[in-house]
Structures are given as C-alpha cells and as structure tokens.
Amino acid sequence: MTIQDQGVRELPVRRDGERLEPRLPLEELNAEGTLIPFMFPNGVPGYMTTTAEDFRAILGDPRFHAKRFLGEPQPSPVSVEVPDMPGFIPSMNGPEHLAVRRLAAGDFSVKAVRNLGPVIDDVVTKYLDATEAHGSPVDLFESYNLPIPSEVIARILGVPTTHTPEFQTAARLTIGGLPDELNDPGAPARAVARLHELLGEVIQMKRAKPEDDLITRLTNATDPLLSDEEIWGLCTNLLLAGHETTSTSSAFAVAILLSRPEAREYFVSHPERNDEMVEELIRYIFMLTDSGAGIPRLATEDVMYNGQKINEGEWVMPCVGTANADPTVCPHGATQLDLEREDILGHHLTFGFGPHTCLGQHLARAELKVIVPKLFERFPTLALTKPVNELPWLDKGFGYRMAELPVAW
Amino acid sequence: MSGPLSVAVEYQKCTAAGQCLLAAPNVFDQSADNGTIVLLDPNPPESERPRVLDAIARCPASVISLADQSSP
Asked: Which of A357, A361, A363 would best serve as a mutation to test chain B binding (most B beta carbons within 10 A)?
C-alpha cells in the first residue's frame, strides 16, 4: 500500500481571515495523533506529523534523510527549485553531515553567540538610526527587519564591508526581494549565482590574508578539508538559513505586537521577561505558516512506524505547527500567544530536532531579543498604517510573510 | 539510594546544538572549536539530577545518558 492508496487529503489551510493566527487546525490535527497522508500544494504527497513525539521520532531516525530540492512536497503550488550545492548541510546526512556541520558549529555555540552581543547591538542600532533618518512613514520590513540578519551573518563570515551591501542585496533577492522586485521569477537563481561570485572573492581574500572569522576557519579546516566550492555552499547555506527566517520572524513579532494592544503593553512593560516573551513569540510565529514550517524527510527504506508503513521513496513532513500545539509541549492554550507563559525556554520545537536541529538557534534568539524591544524603545508611538490582514502577503510556506510592513510614528 | 550521578555522552552523535549547556551548565559545556558536547562533570551531585534530565530531554541527538551509581 502506498501513500496514494490511503486517500490523500488536501492540506486544510484556511485561506482567508486573520493572518496572525494559525492557518491550519493545529489542535484537531494534533488530536488525530498519527501521521496523516496529505497532498501538498505542489502536487506531491507526504505524511505530516501531528504530535511532538512523532516530530522528534522522524527527525531523529537516520532512515529518514534530509534532502532538498529533489521533488519534495512543498507548501506553494509552484515548487521552489534551487540547484543543490556542495557543502549545503540540509542536503547531507550521517557522519559526513556532522563532520561538515561541526566545522561551522563553534561560531554558533551558546558562548560564541554571547560574545556577539556587541555586534548585534551595533547592527541593530545602525538600522534603527537609518529608519529614524528615513522618517515616518516607512516600510519597516525593508528598513529594519530585512537587513539586520544578513549583516550579522556577513560579520560572522568575515565578509569585508566593501562587499557587504552587495552581499545583502543578493541575500534579499534570494527570498524574492521587495514588492517591486517580486515579479522577476529568475531573480533568486541569479542572486544565488551572484553570491557564488562574491563569496568566491572573499574566500580567495581569506586564503591570502587569514583573519579571525568563520570563512578563514573554513579555509583552514582539515577534517574534512573543504574545497572553495564547499565553503561557498556552506556559507550560502548559513546565509539562507539565518536570513529569511530571522527577518521574517522579527517582522511577524512586530506586526503581532502592533496589532494587539494588550500584548504590546505587556511586552514593553516587562523587559525583565524578554527571554521568555521572545521564546513564546518564536513558538507562536512558527505555528502560523500553511505547511507547519517543516523541512521534509525522505524514507530511504521501508519503515514501519506506529503500525503505519512508509515506503522507501515516500516523504514525511515534520510539522512544527502541530508539534508546538502539542499539550506535552504547551499544556494550556497552545494555539494562543501568551506572553505571560512560564516554563517556555527550550520546550518548543521551532528549531527542529535530530542532527539537523537549527545550528543558528542561539543567534536567532539573540537577534530577536534585541531587534524587537529596541524598536519599541526607539519608536514608542509606532503604529501600522494598514491593518495587518490587508497587507500584501506571500504564501510561500516556509517563507510565508508579509511583502511589506508599513508603519508610522 | 541516592549517590553521585553517572553521566555518559556519545560524542560521535553530537550535533552541537548547545541544549545541554543551557539545561545543566555545571555539567556540560560546548567545545569552542566545534560546538560539540564537553562533559565537565561525569559524576555530578544528586542536586543536578533535574537539570541533567532536562538536558537529556532537550538534546536533539540523544547523546546523553544517566545511570545511578548505586551499589546493587
């Protein structure tokens, strides 16, 4: 029996109404408590996990491989195709994956990220100043949310300031760009090619003149040795992984606080709970996407899982949304945002599970903990100029976001 | 019977996610080099038990195990 024989359902995505609430019936799906065969919008079937236990089990099972851009189920009707790259760790598995991942992991450890505090403060202040200098009204996504994560990653990698603006432009275009750039379907692939050239230049510079940065460390790696192509792929991977997710999440956090006066009042008056409040925002925001924000896994052999047979070559979508709505993760009102929630640190599954668990999670947290509160400190009268449900929205699943965030103060 | 805990780690599975250090900073650290687990104290006191169990629950690669060092 294949997945197709099981009566594959369409994803029950709510297509209208409130944008800042979950668009899948997460609690109902979670209560089904099993892997559900769904037809994804790009016409590929896949089993979706519905509980935190299943989410952890699938992502921790080495018989399921992470594979990107191999015809996997995707949340938008038009599949996003990016050519695979050497050194791209979301496509690697087993010991080879761990060995390459560890080459970069030291720069994203808890303590390394603590040491980045001044860099994050510096970059955030730069874009607060630029936003203020632009003046009200402004598209906050363009002036603030979008550029910060790519500049922080540029600093970690060691991209010289001469190359940083173009690096950030390419980063922006890999996710489709700003509203006036979104109509060019070839732009993301060209941006990836431009990143290849830019990073290739930087890699040569670091080989000639080593510095204290990640690209230099990657050029010096011996176990395994990395080719320039692999360093490029790994750096592109780190940029793509940390850029769209963090910029989009910070825009969601701001949009949520601007459209919920009580949550905003609580947020700005409880700075001592910043860690917990940001953690709750991270948990909640990843329940809002159509697909549950998972990265699909491919069965590399026939697997019996809880009485269900998953055939070799079939896909499983680990669903962050249903996992974060699981009562074992969040016992009360899981599909609601609750900034007063206690005991939230480290107990949601937004950053995944298993060997591919988000490498940049400590960096993402550290950035969001500065980006969101500093914005409200600088602009206490900040307000949306358009209701959030009337913004232009991009339904791209993992990259589900508003195309702009128009604000005034 | 309570006694010092016995903590073991399977280094080769470690994916350097840093959850152990957040959960039980007296027992675990991350290598500055490659982010992987460093076992600071293989026999921590009983008072560390809840934090070690939290580290076990949070570790995404099931690297950590705990056995009680009690006499039979």
From this structure: A357
Contact B34 A103 (CB under 8 A): yes
Asked whether the beta carbons of residue B22 and residue A111 sit closer than 8 angstroms, the reply is no
Q: Is residue B1's pLDDT more than 50?
A: no
ipTM: 0.92
Q: Is B38 on the interface with A (CB under 8 A)?
A: no
**Which residue has better confidence, A48 or A184?**
A48
Q: Domain map of chain B by residue range?
A: 5-66
d(CA A357, CA A98): 11
CB atoms closer than 10 angstroms to residue A236: 22
Which contacts of A106-109 are long-range, i.e. CB under 8 A and separated by 24 or more positions? Answer: A106/A217, A106/B16, A106/B31, A106/B32, A106/B33, A106/B34, A106/B35, A107/A156, A107/A214, A107/A217, A108/A359, A108/A360, A108/A362, A108/A363, A108/B16, A108/B35, A109/A362, A109/B16, A109/B18, A109/B30, A109/B31, A109/B32, A109/B35
Predicted confidence band at A374 (pLDDT cuts at 50, 70, 90)? Answer: very high
A324: Cβ contacts below 8 Å, ≥ 6 apart: A26, A52, A283, A284, A286, A287, A330, A334, A348, A349, A350
If you write DSSP's letter for every residue of B40-53 in order, what string do you get?
S-SS--GGGHHHHH
Question: In the CATH scheme, what architecture does the domain B5-66 have?
Answer: 2-Layer Sandwich (3.30)
Which chain B residues are within 8 Å of A354, Cβ to Cβ? 15, 60-61
CA distance A55 to A297: 11
pLDDT digits (tens, 9 = 90+) for B13-54: 999 999 999 999 999 999 999 999 999 999 999 999 999 999
